[in-house]
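testing teh design pipeline on a random one, pls ignore if ur not involved
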């Protein structure tokens, strides 16, 4: 009897093994079908935004994508992006989000096609030239026009414009990232950095803080490693002090004007501008800066552009709101903004970037002054966020072009000094191609570097050395302090 039971057991065991062996290929096949299906869905979504016929584009070996990502179905709110894969080994390189400031200025018009993107807008907006110092040599680069109302980004609910401010922008940018990752899932767990300049000196740490806070939820985790900011607005009081002192030290204003401001302006006070003498002193600084390019003290103005002649009203907004004034002119070619405006308002360009069907054009401007003047929420200082992110172990690098008068190197030095961080590597020159590119100092948790002879938008002036700094930042290496 035991023998029969044992034999029966062995038969059943063999039958079970055969069934398992027969079933396994079916399971693997179904897994393959599911994973292939997900992959195919992702590819279809990406190909929807693949840019293939961009007018004037130089031939390249990498793919790039542009289009809209909805950040509010209810309010029909969508942000426009342009994404460039790294020019080589894109699967192995990090993802970097770039933001320009304003508030109200375009990351596509400035960062992507004047500074660090692979295609730079050409003279008179007729086409594009290849940028040999593009940052997508070292990373996958994502440019975002944020918030709504900037560039091609839009909302169909006018009440959104009433609420625009720093927090609104951070939340929409955060929502954008998670929606974008659904479209590009291979980047979901990629090492991630945020970079930007100007008023993005506030956008970048504010978004980084939001990501850091929400990373406690595993489903929302983004592998944020650090932030990089150029000529950033950081702390209103220190930024103002630096602007005034820089103007005086660079012979833009007189000793008398500087003395009046020093005696009557309390930039730490909420009612700074109620003091008439202080207000008049600052007016004099802005009046003198009207004669040159505040963003690049030693380069020419674009005289042909009539926008420059109406800058006085913008300067009033800049003074009374204590926010970043949009950059009007700057760089080696002072008319770059005009070229960008012409290029992005072409029907064939908008169609190629999936903005329109080539018939119903959107009116693209490099800066939205209405948005700027109605900005509802601006943090007076992001230094507390710096401290929080440093404590969390994030990498923070700040750089300054030293011929910028709007957020001058002095403003940034005053702001960073207020942090009181221990110095780990004292002030010294850093080199690129055997020449002094600037100076730098390392603190516990932060690196600060200058660019010698660069204006507000550093990569326009120093494309090769700015790419070098970006590379050292990504590799978490000190800048070279020997020839």
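output:
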């Amino acid at each position: 009897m035991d023998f029969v039971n044992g034999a029966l057991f062995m038969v059943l065991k063999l039958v079970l093994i055969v069934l398992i062996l027969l079933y396994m290929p079916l399971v693997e096949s179904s897994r393959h079908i599911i994973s292939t299906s997900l992959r195919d869905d992702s590819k279809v979504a990406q190909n929807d935004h693949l840019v293939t016929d961009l007018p004037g584009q130089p031939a390249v070996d990498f793919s790039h994508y542009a289009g809209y990502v909805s950040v509010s179905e209810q309010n029909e709110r969508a942000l426009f992006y342009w994404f460039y894969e790294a020019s080589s080994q894109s699967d192995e390189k990090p993802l970097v989000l770039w933001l320009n400031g304003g508030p109200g200025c375009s990351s596509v018009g400035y960062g992507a096609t004047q500074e660090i993107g692979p295609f730079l807008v050409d003279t008179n907006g007729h086409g594009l030239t290849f940028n040999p110092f593009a940052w997508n040599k070292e990373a996958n680069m994502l440019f975002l026009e944020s918030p709504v109302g900037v560039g091609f980004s839009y909302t169909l609910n006018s009440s959104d414009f009433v609420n625009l401010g720093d927090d609104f922008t951070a939340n929409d940018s955060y929502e954008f990232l998670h929606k974008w990752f659904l479209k590009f899932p291979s980047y979901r767990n990629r090492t991630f950095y945020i970079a930007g300049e100007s008023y993005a000196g506030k956008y970048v740490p504010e978004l980084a803080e939001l990501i850091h806070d929400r990373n406690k939820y595993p489903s929302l985790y983004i592998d944020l490693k650090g932030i990089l900011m150029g000529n950033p607005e950081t702390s209103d009081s220190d930024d103002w002090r630096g602007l005034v002192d820089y103007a005086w030290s660079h012979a833009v204003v007189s000793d008398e004007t500087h003395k009046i401001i020093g005696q009557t302006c309390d930039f730490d006070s909420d009612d700074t501008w109620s003091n008439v003498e202080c207000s008049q002193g600052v007016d004099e600084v802005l009046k003198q800066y009207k004669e040159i390019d505040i963003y690049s003290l030693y380069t020419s103005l674009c005289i042909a552009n009539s926008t420059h002649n109406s800058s006085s009203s913008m300067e009033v907004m800049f003074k009374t709101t204590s926010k970043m004034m949009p950059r009007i002119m700057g760089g080696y070619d002072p008319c770059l903004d005009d070229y960008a405006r012409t290029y992005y308002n072409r029907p064939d360009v908008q169609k190629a970037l999936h903005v329109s069907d080539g018939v119903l054009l959107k009116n693209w401007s490099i800066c939205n002054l209405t948005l700027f003047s109605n900005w509802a929420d601006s943090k007076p200082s992001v230094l507390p966020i710096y401290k929080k992110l440093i404590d969390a172990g994030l990498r923070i690098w700040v750089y300054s072009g030293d011929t910028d008068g709007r957020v001058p190197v002095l403003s940034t030095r005053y702001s960073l000094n207020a942090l009181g961080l221990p110095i780990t590597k004292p002030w010294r020159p850093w080199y690129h191609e055997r020449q002094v590119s600037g100076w730098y100092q390392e603190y516990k948790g932060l690196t600060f570097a200058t660019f010698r002879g660069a204006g507000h938008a550093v990569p326009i002036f120093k494309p090769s050395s700015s790419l070098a700094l970006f590379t050292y930042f990504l590799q978490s290496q000190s800048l070279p302090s020997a020839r």
